[in-house]
Design brief:
CATH class: Alpha Beta
CATH architecture: 3-Layer(aba) Sandwich
CATH superfamily: Alpha/Beta hydrolase fold, catalytic domain
Strand order of the largest sheet: 3-4-6-8-7-9-10-13-14-15
Shape: globular
Largest sheet: 10 strands, mixed
Number of domains: 1
Length: 441
Amino acid sequence: MSGLIVTTEYGNLEGIVSGGCRCFLGVPFAKAPLGDLAFKHPVKPEPWDGVYSAVRGKANPLQGHGHKEYKVTDRDCLYLNVFVPETEAEEKLPVMVWVFGGSYCTGGTGLKSADSDDLEYDMTRFARDTGTIVVTFNYRLNMEGFLNLSYIDPVYEMNNGLYDQIAALEFVRSNIGAFGGDDKNITVFGQSAGAACILALMTHPEAAPLFDKAIVQSACVDSFWNIEESRKLTELFLKYIGIGKDDIAKLKNVSAQEVFDAAHRLKKHVFSGGDVRCAFSPVVDGVTIKDYPSKLVSDCTKPLLMGTNKNEANIFVNDIPAIAMPFVARKFHLTPEHGKGARERYSDQATDFIYKTPMGRITSSYKGPVWTYEYTYQTPQIKASGAGCFHASELPVLLAQDLGISDVNDPESEKTGNLMRSIWGEFARTGKCGWEGCRTI
């Protein structure tokens, strides 16, 4: 692909050149989920006439609780971005599709600000270094993506955020060839909730044929609800947002602030009950998600790279006051710790329980080729803070951008990032890693 105009099944797109890549930004992969389409599975976009201007990102999904403010949000959010490294190579390039994390409640791949063209995830450097075409996309979050309204009114559907991901992958599989991508060599990679979604996609009959390999980073493997649990949480959310079961259509028009506030209250409720699952986790309903992915994914045979960070739970434990630690530990069924280093040992327990042990259950019985890693590197900024190698701390190093977590402008972070991008890129090209068993990064 040499030009800035490509032809997709829906029409022509015009992109821009930025950061050594041809970039196609804000490309619709579904109709806007508004009005009669709200709280339902996505619908394919309508073809367009002329040339669609894909030169600027779109809005992020409506947000729930989160440590970071997303300034540009909208219900009309089902858009993707394509980053194509400029190259003289004539062969089709491998494709990598990013699934962002954020507790199923926060995050996005759209604009950082209405006053600039900067994206939440600028994948130009990652695309150049890996030699792959990179696709990022939005999916609906919190109440719009994962609230179970179907038991109240069957006109509404389940796990809409997951089906947004399937719709994006369908667009990629069908159209990435027009961008110069190899539609038979697609790797999905994601972190946290995004990584857990990948496990669900690997076991989903509609989604599994749409990609060829998977990279699963710090997955919250067990963060799924059953039907009964989801119903109770739905009723609580409706109570918090002030809408009765007979009036749930009003959810289509509540303000972004009302969504945020109610989601924050629901998170506090789940946490106060000693549950480490995300408040808006996907629902195992036996239809849209047949069973818990942790039970099914080991039967998959796609090449899999899966790993965790050394001190994942520090992001949760570090902010708990020392006087409250024993109470919190009892609530979350951790073994009592005493004396110097107790906080660190509590974090190690939580890291093992939430991330490492569930990952081990999957990888120990996985039928396909599998490689594992443990990420231990700390940027100078993170090391100086004493935060440890916490959940998501690998992202700025891997993706070569701050992301509001840490700067990565020092030589050691650059070296580590180059190593990670070479591993991720090689896996995307060949479905293999250059080591046996587990590797420390």
